Amino acid sequence: MIYLASPYTHPDPKVREHRYQEACRCAAQLIRTGHHVLSPISHSHGIAQYGLPGDWAYWESLDRRFLEMCDEVGVLMLDGWKESNGVQAEIRIAREMDKLVSFLPAAGGEECHNDQDWRGSR
After folding, report:
1. Cα atoms in the Cβ-side hemisphere of radius 13 Å centred on 57
2. Could you identify which of 15, 55, 81, 102 might form a hypothetical disulfide with 120, taking C-beta atoms 3.0 to 4.6 angstroms apart as the criterion?
3. Cβ burial 107-119 (10 Å sphere, 16+ → b, else e)
4. Cα–Cα–Cα angle for 37, 110, 13, nearest 5°?
5. How do residues 9-39 score in pLDDT, each as one tens digit?
6. Which residues pair with 65 in a beta bridge?
7. Domain chopping of the chain, boundaries
């Protein structure tokens, strides 16, 4: 199963919504091509709207558990992924767990990856 890491936290709710939509789009594309995907942003965005924080510090323990359940991590390279505390922590934790980490281009098109070259290394 692929853990889809993507940036989320931002002061502008429109940016958060855009990031959520892109994570869902990418997860759907991966599922459509036969992958099993767990997208924490797709899961937690709606839940967080009911008074829960949206930052990594709050979701870290749940996301660590999700990471344990997955075989690999795909990082959706949306604007802000390099600066995201959550994404950088997810990459670090995945590598500590000896999980495959891959980087998925966020081109804004139908595809969120090229099946031939999106998979990375441990």
Report:
1. 1
2. 102
3. eeeeebbeeeeeb
4. 75
5. 999 999 999 999 999 999 999 999 999 999 9
6. none
7. 9-79+86-105
